[in-house]
Amino acid sequence: MSIEQRLAELGITLPEPAAPVAAYVPAVEANGLLHISGQISFAEDGSLIKGRLGENVDLEAGQAAARRCGIMLLAQMKAALGSLDRVQRVVKLGVFVNSHGDFTDQPKVANGASELMQAVFGEAGRHARSAVGVPVLPLGVAVEVDAVVQVRS
Predict the structure, then answer these.
(1) Cα torsion angle, 83, 84, 89, 90, sign
(2) pTM of the model
(3) Closest Cα to residue 37, out of 153, 140, 144, 152?
(4) What is the residue-level pLDDT of the chain in tens, covering all 153 positions?
(5) N or C: at which end does the chain have fewer Cβ atoms within 10 angstroms?
């Protein structure tokens, strides 16, 4: 089964990949790895998912925001590679969670993106990961996720 078929089976439609908002490119392929810039939390309607976990965003909404970041990562992968079938393995996700000082469930928030990668790519979607709480993220979003994926030639 192709990854496109898997996305359809999961009911996932990829959005247009987000354009950079500063002086960087969305993805760089080097030495068999695709490094994808941080993708911020956009809702399906294109609006930003904003807020701080532990203050005005609950865990479930944070996980959904991380999943939406993961969907944008998929869109960036497809744009950079031409086909998601070129993804050999998701190597690592870096998850940044806009967090109140007392919030400590960043790994649970990050599961929103991690579980998506495993659902889409199967065993090849299992990856190393960082989940970090930060006091603020660009544009006030709740979550940002970057990725490194191994690619087929």
Answers:
(1) positive
(2) 0.97
(3) 144
(4) 899 999 999 999 999 999 998 999 999 999 999 999 999 999 999 999 999 999 999 999 999 999 999 999 999 999 999 999 999 999 999 999 999 999 999 999 999 999 999 999 999 999 999 999 999 999 999 999 999 999 998
(5) C
Residue 57, helix vs strand vs coil: strand
The label of the residue with tokens 């919030």 reads: 103
**Architecture of 3-151 per CATH?**
2-Layer Sandwich (3.30)
Quick one: CA dihedral 148, 17, 8, 107, positive or negative? positive
From its phi and psi, is residue 140 left (phi > 0), alpha (psi between -120 and 50) or beta? left
